Amino acid sequence: MEFSSKLLESAVYEMSQLPGIGKRTALRLVLHLLKRPKEQTAGLAEALVNLKDNIKFCKNCHNISDVAVCEICSNPRRDESVVCVVEDIRDVMAIENTGQFQGLYHVLGGKISPMEGVGPQDLTIFSLVDKAKQGKIKELILALSSTMEGDTTNFYIYKQLDGLGIKTSTIARGIAVGDELEYADEVTLGRSILNRIPFENSLKV
Fold first, then answer.
1. Which of the four, 60, 104, 113, 202, has the lowest number of CB atoms within 10 Å?
2. Rounded to whole angstroms, how far apart are CA atoms 93 and 96?
3. How far is the C-alpha of 85 from the C-alpha of 96, rounded, in Å?
4. What distance in Å separates the CA atoms of residue 22 and residue 76, rounded to the nearest whole number?
């Protein structure tokens, strides 16, 4: 792709580094921004820099937050004895949109994937186990996507909790095998949370 401007080429290159954005889409977005008032482009740039500089991760659940403890963890109406384990913030948002879950979350920050060099030490699994050992958690819901990596992570966590006396369940298979949680419709995802099954049963499937 030939560019008549080095400034344009640089902006397109940076935009194309975003996931799912190819060079042609990046060019279209940059040209769109170029046509907009300078104030709008400046507002977008400021919002992104502010996000990067000031975003925090909740010290309890590792969810993205503006403060040290996120609104979900600090809500006294949430049931702290039930914790839903998810991969990232997108899954928290998907489950929250169902309105069917009133417990707390634990965000792993990914899934175990030897092929990509991601091991348990790269996730927040050990802080989850430490939290479980404190005795406040009665049920842990493993709500990772139904992929090989998701199942591997579920099983690893399950084995780490062995002997702690915590009920471990997994979302019902209303979520198709291989599906990512964030793309499930709210009704299906809500029912999968409500109709969760003991994790031991999922090992027999």
1. 113
2. 5
3. 13
4. 44
- Structural domain ending residue among the three candidates 33, 54, 75: 54
- Strand 79-86 relative to strand 103-107: parallel, antiparallel, unpaired? parallel
Tell the residue number behind the tokens 């993205």, with chain if given.
64
Domain that holds residue 34: 6-54
Q: Quick one: 85 and 48 in the same domain? A: no
Mean pLDDT, the chain, integer: 88
Residue 42: what pLDDT? 93
* Residue 1 forms part of a structural domain: no
* Domain count of the fold of the chain: 2
pLDDT digits (tens, 9 = 90+) for 150-183: 989 999 999 999 889 999 998 765 544 445 556 5
pTM for the full predicted model? 0.77
Residue closest to 29 by CA, chosen among 39, 50, 44, 48: 44
Query: Do residue 158 and residue 84 come from a single domain?
Result: yes
